[in-house]
Amino acid sequence: MALFTAPLLLGAVVVAALVWFVGRLRSADAAVPGPILNLFSSLPLKYHEFCGNRTQYIHQLHRRYGSAVRLAPGEVAFASLPALKEIYLSHGSGYDKTSFYHLFRQYGTPTMFSTLDKQTHSQRRRILADRYANSHVLKADALNGIRDRAKTFAIAAGQSPNQIMDVYIALHSYAFDGVTHHLFHPFGSNALEDRMDEAVMREVSFDNSLARRLLEYYFPSGVPAKIADRLGLLPPARSIPRAKQIVLDAVDTTLKSASEGKEGPHAADFTLLSRLQDPALGLTRMQMAAECMDHMAAGIETTGDVLCWLMWQLSLPSCHRIQDRLYAELRDNPDPAKYDSLPYLHAVLKEGLRMFPSIPMSLPRHVPSGGRVIDGTWLPEGTIVSCQPYTMHRFEEDIFPQPDEFSPDRWLGTSLEQDAEMNRRFFAFSNGGRGCLGKHLAMAEMKLVLREVYRQYKTVLADTGGKPADMSMSDQIISSRPKDQTCKLKFIPRRLKDSV
Ligand code: HEM
């Protein structure tokens, strides 16, 4: 009997393998250009993800194969405007997110960002949107807290030993203080001046759980993670107890004051928390905390990383003339209220976001039921599709000539048409109904601190004797950060008589 079953089993396996093989060859993604191996296996993509190199890998595939590339069975990436519009803008907020976003639940509770379907998402977004409208961000109570912290940053830079500061640390502290001011002032952090708060920022920014979280996503049973743990192959799990506590304390204190009906300590009227605690919304304590926690993490890493790369870039000898031009604009426009209407400052920041989008990697979405044609390619329902900011900002060289060159001038109006083409492809904050909610806050934070720094100082790379820090991109779960997580700059005070 066993003699018969073994060949039968073998035959069944061979037939199944053949069916699968032919199925892959006849699949819709077989018609998309890309490495042949990726038609049959997701291993090459996963390998690069685990190495923190997904963005660059996909970018190189686009350079080799064109604007549509097959990444893995059932996964295709695009780098064209029609694809971006279809995936992220069709019917307002584009296609639904994939289950990858479940990794962003906080305290085990879903948040707006981690919600997959459009309807639940848009209900939550409607509640929160007014707190992030530009008109709201510019209100005095909200903005003054950020402005004060930008001043603190510039003072701290000037007072650092030998005027050398690790801006990776200081800018993430600044971003932490800025975002918590907006989320739940007066319970916000003071990491720029207080070591205990800086330690909370470090907990979030130095998290090293990429491989573990990817394993959890790909193997929800948890078995591979357990085996890798036993073998000592994985760094510790994401652990941010102090950050979680800061948020819970702010929520609990505010709720307690509200329940006692007296003027106890509570989140200021302009904050996100004051909106979330409105009883009419019926949110639970954990839902409020999860939303605040999510925005806090989003606000620290993204803003801190872009600013760090941008200040590093400006400090390279080749960019000193850009600093001089920026200084001239800031010197000639001393009114602090005008920070948002300075064309060169805007162009420098926009170029920073183009070259160093802190969420540079593809933002995965599912093709809806019935399948869709994306930029001329038909793909069936359930295919994972995406565009990545890093490539959208570089791929079409007629739109972004010399894409690897830092050139703020490209944003200063060669022609209205060219401006419009660049802006349509500008994807640092994503786009559509699921685009970045905090972008006005982020822009205000970044402009205010750049204004404070570059009207007072020239920055240069600090000569610390050792090997220069590696500033190349290290992909995390969705954002990317400078690999060495350190960036020492020297702040040389400008004098009024400085000529430029
Ligand atoms: C330079 C700074 C920032 C960049 C480059 C950035 C980028 C992005 C991107 C690309 C997305 C979409 C991600 C996706 O679809 O997977 C996003 C979403 C989001 N961002 Fe930002 N972000 C920044 C700062 C902030 C700040 C300061 C906050 C809030 C305090 C914030 C809050 C959010 C939220 C809540 C979402 C989710 C929106 C939704 O699901 O509807 N971001 N951000």
Automatic annotation (TrEMBL):
Keywords: Heme, Iron, Metal-binding, Monooxygenase, Oxidoreductase. CDD domains: CYP_fungal (cd11059). InterPro entries: Cyt_P450, Cyt_P450_CS, Cyt_P450_E_grp-I, Cyt_P450_sf, Cytochrome_P450_monoxygenase. Pfam families: p450. Gene3D superfamilies: Cytochrome P450. Its cofactor is heme. It comes from the Eukaryota. Belongs to the cytochrome P450 family. This is Cytochrome P450. It comes from Sporothrix bragantina.
